[in-house]
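Quick illustration, no need to memorize.
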Amino acid sequence: MRISRLKKRLRGDHDFKGHTILGSMCSEPHPIAKRTYKRFLSTNVGDPGLFPKLIKLEKEFISNLGVLLSNPNAKGNVVSGGSEANILAMWTAKNICNAGQNEIIISENCHFSFDKAASLLSLKLIKIPVDSRQRIRVDLAEKAINSNTAAIVGIAGTTGLGVCDPIEKLSEISFKNNIYLHVDAAFGGFVFPFMDNGPKFDFSLPGVKSITIDPHKMGRAAIQSGCIIYRDENIANYVRTPVSYLSGGSTVNNMIMGTRSGASIAAAWMVYNYLGVNGYKKIVKKAMSLTWWFITEVKKIDGLCVKVEPECNVVGVCVNDNYDIKKLINGVRELGWAVSEWPDYMRIAIMPHVTQRALKKFLNDLKKLLLIQSLHS
């Protein structure tokens, strides 16, 4: 069977190279990540006895991320993505707590992976309202603390709008009350550290016990590659499953997955060391420059506005009362654009694959669709 037959079957799917994907928080992996991934495609670090040097490379990569996040002693693993990392963090928090402590204090804007974690682990999410900037209300979060509280979650780069919760204040509350604080920085983890005066969210804050960070988003690594980073080995060891039958003899697994791609680890390590801090700063600076340009152009269009002033390269585009956001989203999708849909806005993620040329075309399409709506109103 020829590959051309498969390509024909999949024709019509979106492609990052086609510049129509405006709503995804993933992007085209860096060329060096793709080459490295292909080279190590058959490796499975779920059996550590087979690939001990790849396991060592993973530890080195986690240590590198620890340094980035203000803690060279951090421990953790490369996992399938932010969802697995967030579930692992909630599992860890539950195991640290006493029996009966099952409440997680979290923003109402949290990622759906926390709903999965709650269902899997019999946890109860206490979803806290947000302020005018779409950040968790710290005062209400503090009031929600009680004897059943197992953890507090702060978000550094929300899924919908890319804003950062007041992690410093959440850290103070968590530290004072001896409560586990997890930071979901799946998106912001590869953005905020490379910005001038980016928000503080990492292990420099004493209350933070674990962080989710995804190299396959702004880190330019291959899909799938997320990371769960713990403050220290003691915390990381609260989730451990003994395994006796693997090639290297008895070991422990402290993840959800058994089989794990070594290619993801090798590619993430390679692109991180290839780009370095300066390389990531250039990527973030370029994305933010394009983001501010895009916002300026959106505001020039009658009927459009932004949900909040963004903190990173994520924009929520809204309409005024004269227009229907649902019709607008359906319209741009019919024209071939892949955007993210929310109840009162569409999310545009200005990722490395997004070009100014594509955004200009998208803005022109928005103008035409708004004109059509106004003529039919």
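The mean pLDDT is 96.
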